[in-house]
Queue: 4 jobs
Job 1
Amino acid sequence: MPNISNKGASMPESPIRKLVPYAENAIKEGKTIYHLNIGQPDIKTPEVALNAVKNQSLEILAYSRSEGSEAYRTKIAQYYQKNDIQVNHDDIIVTTGGSEALLFAFGSIMDADDEVIIPEPFYANYNGFSTASGINIVPVISKIEDNFALPPIEEFEKLITSKTKAILICNPGNPTGYLYSKEEITKLANLVKKHDLFLLADEVYREFAYDGHQHYSVMQAEGIEDHAIMIDSVSKRYSMCGARVGCLVSKNKTVIQTALKFAQARLSPPTFAQIASEAALETPQSYFDDVIEEYVERRNTLIQELEKIEGVKVAKPNGAFYCVVELPIKNADHFAQWLLEHFDIDGETVMVAPAAGFYSTPNVGLNQIRIAYVLKKESLIKAVSIIKKALTVYKD
Amino acid sequence: MPNISNKGASMPESPIRKLVPYAENAIKEGKTIYHLNIGQPDIKTPEVALNAVKNQSLEILAYSRSEGSEAYRTKIAQYYQKNDIQVNHDDIIVTTGGSEALLFAFGSIMDADDEVIIPEPFYANYNGFSTASGINIVPVISKIEDNFALPPIEEFEKLITSKTKAILICNPGNPTGYLYSKEEITKLANLVKKHDLFLLADEVYREFAYDGHQHYSVMQAEGIEDHAIMIDSVSKRYSMCGARVGCLVSKNKTVIQTALKFAQARLSPPTFAQIASEAALETPQSYFDDVIEEYVERRNTLIQELEKIEGVKVAKPNGAFYCVVELPIKNADHFAQWLLEHFDIDGETVMVAPAAGFYSTPNVGLNQIRIAYVLKKESLIKAVSIIKKALTVYKD
């Protein structure tokens, strides 16, 4: 039998997927699971987006342009302009989800064995994309005690080598929920300018900024027009994860021309989903106001309930819909599996994402979990009460 | 300004895209263009597929499973079984177009600098996927005199090195239209077994087999269950190029598990398009009968008209909807550009794909073009008459 590649063998498994068989067994046993583990919101997709697809009258479901339909790119550019991000349609390449935008960015700016510095904990699939691209992630640890704020800029600087091509941030962060300030972005901007690096920012949670904070994009930072590359997606903004539409945005023409060649090779992003995404831009502000209000209430409820548990430490997020929680246990991987296999209250249990998978440094975050607050308040209260009770029974 | 990667710089441009600015200029000048250059059929998408998307009542456009929805995979497996390909749903990973299936396959079985042997001329985007994956294509020339039949198996064998991991074929072929016989597939099967290689087959044109020929899949070849990987797509079968749904199929469990990790990193294939693709499987046989009849007539018309031109050599295709044509000129790149810039009959001209871009060996196929017969017969007759006249005027 022919061998698979070393690359394929070293592709990481998602830290959540490992638990899926245990969850499936729990469901077979008749248990109900509160899913705190996933980033699939329960928020309804705007009707205007769904209706656009229902009402289309295509006779041939044809390719769009490789860079995305002109109409859609023009409208996203307007959306960015309204959000104080000065870009035009030709600074934008529409991609199949934020995932593909990241792959195009990695391919466009990094060769085999090049390095990208990323504050950890970070979105676990960055590991998969870097393995697939043959590049290496160099992590900088951010700390739960600081709410996962940007680590001191010197920590980044001392990791820069001749292999370093970029710094990647997720803002607001998955899994941390941390929203970087203008000052933090400015520090990064100065650093990438000084060392002639790219600054990649995954800003797919831009709309989810709470407590009066304003999101500040790398595309707004002055003097780094040739360095900044923004990754975006409709998945979370409009609760359209299944659309698979994102984009790569940069004022650097060479980056756009290069990414376009990757885009041309795969022909086009999905057509139905572009129709939905274009229509989604008509979503009224009231939709977002309601969604933000809902998430803020969920976050407040979640944190309030978690803080009632002895020995639990919570990073207070002011963006996205995740938070990282430190538990009074040794190994969250084991705890998460145990919750599914051996624990329930009246047939109900909880699925969480062990946070170690969001760190690149080994043996960090072992006692942490990520909670996605994508469930209704009552469910969150119930879920946390199950964790609370479980912690009194669980033995490491 | 930070530099882009060597990989990005060496990503090839599509051989067709180079001509797009000239085509756009021609249109601005008021010319009408017969597009013989693209693989976007004018055939209508089956209504059953479009209606499924119109009639869906999703409230949340959610992720599907990374490997594709269970329902869809189950139904495609049934479709394959009906076509004498014995696979189950768990031998299938649904991908974002055949393109992504190829990228997953390359990533799963090849490391940087590994080699895949491909008969040329081949689908030009294989170049882009191999550059993106950091691997190398080793071409074997097939000849227009043989209708682009499989080159002698010894030609493959003498190219095999320790770096060789796979042989890739496109069957029926784009750009050649050649349909491999059972005997040819068997020869390849024996070779990959002997040298413990993978046999990748891009079979997205399976339905398009003419003149009573039956398509014979690598998945039907005996004894190479662990070697064979099939790439498929709904794009051409149902004229649904914009769906972006394909799949990777293999009986080799390790390959499937490895490809699944690539699939998990990008979360899921597009949901709307999976709904359309699942429904498309209900397309009545009469749809295909009509489509095949239409393509056969188009092919016959095209070849008949081309053969009237002195000095023109045509490979007679018995599959897909392309053919490669040798013209009595030196440089088809230049001719194709000249047609758009400097030639028209009553304001009408033709856009063709120069075939050199489908060869990996330099300076081969310079006098060849690829014609996609995706236009109505009358348009094909008109387009060929324009080429005929142009050849009497054109000077290399």
Job 2
Amino acid sequence: MAGLLSLFKRRRPEKAPGCSAVIVAAGSARRMEGIDKVLAPLGELPVLVHTLYAFQDCPAIDEIVVVTREDLLVEVSRICKDFAFRKVTKVVVGGAERIGSVQAGLREADPEAELIAIHDGARPLVSQEVIQGVVEAARLSSAAAPAIPVTDTVKWAEGGRTVETVDRSQLWAVQTPQVFEAGLIRGAIQKAIDDGEGLTDDCGAVERLGMPVTLTRGSQENIKITTPLDLAVGEAILRARGEGLL
Amino acid sequence: MAGLLSLFKRRRPEKAPGCSAVIVAAGSARRMEGIDKVLAPLGELPVLVHTLYAFQDCPAIDEIVVVTREDLLVEVSRICKDFAFRKVTKVVVGGAERIGSVQAGLREADPEAELIAIHDGARPLVSQEVIQGVVEAARLSSAAAPAIPVTDTVKWAEGGRTVETVDRSQLWAVQTPQVFEAGLIRGAIQKAIDDGEGLTDDCGAVERLGMPVTLTRGSQENIKITTPLDLAVGEAILRARGEGLL
């Protein structure tokens, strides 16, 4: 009977491991025309609202932790309530550096979650395909990130003069969400903090442990909003999506 | 008397060397939704018309040679006539590869020109500042190109897995126009053709001779139109410029 039960258990479809998303919307104090970039309007909704809809609507995501700045805490909490983002379990204050904000988010994420997706709050146009693809890859390989090929001609320069053209055939521009086995990213970020290392992205912390990161298909549309031009580009993408052009 | 004359000559302000522009609008056979990218409409004018206006209006440019595909020759010639681009001296047919098109343009440019500016026809939003800046730098240093810092996190990857994060602090994405002392670029392109080398940009041919290229200030707005998304971005830039946002 015990044998039968365990057989039955084994034959049940395995529940996919849970994935918590940490949305880093702490930014620096840098503002665009007086508005924090994550709250800037994009197609009539704040940038962060687009971002949260993408994760709220994604079946691969079970929980969302939002990390923000202290002075935005009330506004961001209000947004989560007003738009009824029911997957958002916590809105927390981040650190002065990005890595501190990531750590604050990791600390608040469900300890049972097997995967953690870390995403820039300022990437509002991430698609379901990109999120699903990277979560699936992380299930298989512990660490994954979406990327697009570098299409610009890239030069290595010193003192304003080119030294050489970089072979771009193996260069990839990485995006977010970057998804990791939870214990791996917690350990990697803690080690980076202990070592006093800055990070441009979370993959870097994992790579520093000697582990490769699987790259998945990113999207040209998954832009990071940093400048007024980026906002104009974001508007153009939304408009083109609305017209079925993209 | 002869001495006085030569002194007089030396003291006259030197005429700045002439600069011919070679606009490469030959492209591949790749089309966007049935329309060749250089003829695609951008804010009600074809992409190439924006490009030609930028060079026509630039005091640093004395002559324009347009290189195009055989099947676009009539249409491109008609555009140059209809819009009265009086600096356009020739519209010529390019080669199957970009380097052949550049060579065709170099062959037709005024042999007296001291500088040659080579520009992608599909970069319609280049500003006067970018063109002027790179022409001035080339006058001082024989070879110059506009560039912007790489802001993406860039990974070196093999077989779909990251190997390392590339230090981006010395990485620059180069744009066009790239401007060269005329004899230098003619020799460099001829050597690249003789060596059977492909090129992603013309600077590469000069770098291969062991000469550095001076980088000047490019612009995020100086995009290359390659995809429908790029066209949407171009529209957004035009609109933002119209509203005084950029």
Job 3
Amino acid sequence: METLVERVLERNKRAIAKAISLVENHPDECEQFIKKIFPYTGKALVVGTTGPPGSGKSTLLNNLAIEFRKRGKTVGIIAVDPTSPFSGGALLGDRIRMDELSADPDVFIRSMGSRGSLGGLSRATMDAIRVLDAAGFDLILVETVGAGQSEVEIVRTAHTTIVIGIPGTGDAVQAIKAGILEIADIYVVNKSDRPGADEIARELRLLLTLDPHAKDEGRWRVPVISTTNLPPVSGIIELADTILQHQVFLNDPKNAALAFEQEMIRRKNEIHEIIKVEIFENMLTSLIGRQEWEKILKDVISKKLDPYSAAKSIMDPLFR
Amino acid sequence: METLVERVLERNKRAIAKAISLVENHPDECEQFIKKIFPYTGKALVVGTTGPPGSGKSTLLNNLAIEFRKRGKTVGIIAVDPTSPFSGGALLGDRIRMDELSADPDVFIRSMGSRGSLGGLSRATMDAIRVLDAAGFDLILVETVGAGQSEVEIVRTAHTTIVIGIPGTGDAVQAIKAGILEIADIYVVNKSDRPGADEIARELRLLLTLDPHAKDEGRWRVPVISTTNLPPVSGIIELADTILQHQVFLNDPKNAALAFEQEMIRRKNEIHEIIKVEIFENMLTSLIGRQEWEKILKDVISKKLDPYSAAKSIMDPLFR
């Protein structure tokens, strides 16, 4: 394991891949491993991106990574979206472009399975981010499909959150209702070569000004950036600039209190995740045996016992 | 509260609405309330539906509810999708159609907030289903956006799960990758008036036969049903028939063992949800004070303490 740690710190791609498999599949070793690399983390800018399937997130991230490489930045990409081309489900053209990117020694791309991550996807993703962080990637781009609670949790671990929408019916309204507008640091209207793009960008800008805190002094103003994926791509340079501006904003001593508060929330969420896993995968099995479980479940099915009382009886030993 | 229970059992719409608000916002009273109505539950067929935004789920459910009403069935609808027209974010035409439906005394429609449910959305949704069940609705249709882990959990509480897709790039592949094909009891290709519909239906049927257990005797064969939302709607009668066939299948004494096993899993998931809420909203706050939390988080941020050790130190009192 010592060797693995050393080689991850040297940014060896095979070691990084191995380390991420370890955090995905071996919770016990993961814990030891994370403890060892933990002191080397905290340098990367973690950029969470979220948007519905079909919004062209992966291609956008691909183009963004190319732009950051031009600027000499090293880039890690983690795709948590099972429908992402990064995860393999791609049109051939996309795949080829992404393969080119991943051949770059200063780029590392990994998709996380939505099933099969022992100990929860959120926890595994956070630890995978940490592996890339320790490996010294300047930027870590995390792609999620962003419609579910767990995906929103993953995005919340990012320093900078990009919400991606496309022109179409009610996108702006849906963003508000889904509560994703309020998590955005940057809003991107992708596929802005399509009809209705200017309109949705205008709507979003308007909606963002309606936030009562929108004009508070020293507050980050959420920009709306229009991008296209089809060559000639547009908006990518502006998006890369804006991400780096947000980094500057977060590192500004004037915003230290805000940045610290956000970091407190991120770490609290992470500890919550670890506790959740610990309780459900370890503690619960030690509290209650298989036969006892069966008896309780049968009593609930036959309505002798309601589920709340069942939960209480299982947790009883904890309170003794 | 006794009065509220009685009036819910009489299927009084105002009482039902009040009861669902109670399970959403008042965890303590909820527990008491659920204990009281619990003996009256277990009669409804709970149908979970999931599909991406834009797949026309809400309109399909609307049409399905109308079909079931024609057959004399009472119908409850719970929309867990924040982008659902049932939740208010609708085109005017949709809204009007849904308002007509909800004016029917034997139909109850409710959307669940994706935020603001104290004690977790999954738990609140399960209890809302229970309220409608106690109120004597024959069918309870639950709509989720289905891309996230919590949404899949919600769908897993259903007796019958419908996965909805639309013609378009790689829908079949995406369904497999997202692991939603394996939760489907019925697969619907909606908007089947669009090009590519026959192709995706064919692909899905092929994929479903690839399941090694697909030909096991006595097993439910997952059908693929093509539907349209635009008048004249098609496929709805077949879909309604199929849902009721699945109910017959589940109630067949030959399948009693399977049905019981599934019910065991559902109840186990539900008890897990309750335990999760209990631990994070009650137990954790009693284990660790605000100041202690702050100290731990600061130590993690300054890298004096790694998150795994932090989680352990918080849970330590549980093991003494």
Job 4
Amino acid sequence: MTRYCATIQYDGTDFLGFQFQPKGRTVQGEIEATLKRVTQSEIRIDGAGRTDAGVHATGQVIAFSVEWRHSLADLQRALNATLPQDIIISCLKIVTDDFHPRFDALSRCYCYTIDNQFWPSVLQQRYAYHVKDKLDMVAMQSAARFLVGTHDFASFGKPTQGTSTIRQVMETDWKTDWKTDGNLLFFYIRANAFLYRMVRKIVGTLIQVGLGHLKVQDIQTILEAKDLKCSASLVPACGLCLVEVVYPE
Amino acid sequence: MTRYCATIQYDGTDFLGFQFQPKGRTVQGEIEATLKRVTQSEIRIDGAGRTDAGVHATGQVIAFSVEWRHSLADLQRALNATLPQDIIISCLKIVTDDFHPRFDALSRCYCYTIDNQFWPSVLQQRYAYHVKDKLDMVAMQSAARFLVGTHDFASFGKPTQGTSTIRQVMETDWKTDWKTDGNLLFFYIRANAFLYRMVRKIVGTLIQVGLGHLKVQDIQTILEAKDLKCSASLVPACGLCLVEVVYPE
């Protein structure tokens, strides 16, 4: 048995999420079914992050152990030829037997995309959340800086395992691009790990700052409250994308 | 009757093209059906360009004349609320009775998107053409410059009306963006008008330059040949988008 690490991309639109569920289409379910078809054996995969229903990924990382007598490139080609259209393995490597994509990860980076113009862009509706009122990017940028560092993020989510709500946010950034005349806003956030729905709660709260309903400094107050009820409501899954998982070396 | 000009966007994936056809879903057909539902009258629309099946638009322009007693904003809201998910009116204006979106246009600008990496990006597959071999952008940029000016483009397309194949290309540009690490290439081309499938023939030929199968100067030779058989084959519709139509004033 050899252990493989794969960087995968998926369009989350038509999935109930990453994690296998007995009923319904999941990323894990599709990949495990593909591995069974290609290798004729029952294989369980481990993922770096359990993205929710509708959340996309361009840099999700999975690992699995399998007996394969052909080349690494052959395995990647065979899997990509068998996977459904909305999942692709963009990189495949051999790793040590003890590699675990979740426990070995140093950090994860998510990007949340907002389509910020009065009428939504038709070509962005699968991948962006439409906010018609103009957002103040400078205010959202300043507010996001309060999140950087090791804090108790109880105001922004619940742990998916264990009880600690302390996480380390390494960086946050709001960006735009020339291609959409600044109408698409991208929020990047990197942390050692995230609480359940933490990015979507943070973005929901930052949008309130961008709309002028909250002041920049209110983010600090909300963070210190350590109370989930203090943050704003969740933004939709379609705007969220897991873009990178970082490992040692 | 008042004449209206609308800038519309559509995701071309599920359309047989812009122009009405008795069978099958078209952009014109959907908009005319929407106008009928909203205004209770049979209205014909005129479009600036008849995009092919699968071609997208973020800046198509249409015009129509209708009796409407409420505000302009109300008309736009009513139409957008009734249009299918994959069409939106992003701008609506009142124009003079003689305005024609096709005949009055000074120029059209198209953008063709190429996903240039070994494995395709899952999130781009509806809107980009995947080319796995690395393209030489500098060579494609230089080659595209030969097209700028007033030339006989018979090597790149047939006229949709009349017999002249002379068109004026005002500018061409290849761009990338930071967001995809330069893996997405955008080709912009503006002309007074285009021949049938001209942009897709041009991009197909420029790709041959980018792959090193043609030299930069070969574009000049192909242009001078005035023979459709001299250019490379068509690239797929999914990468093409009508981004702008320019009018006087």
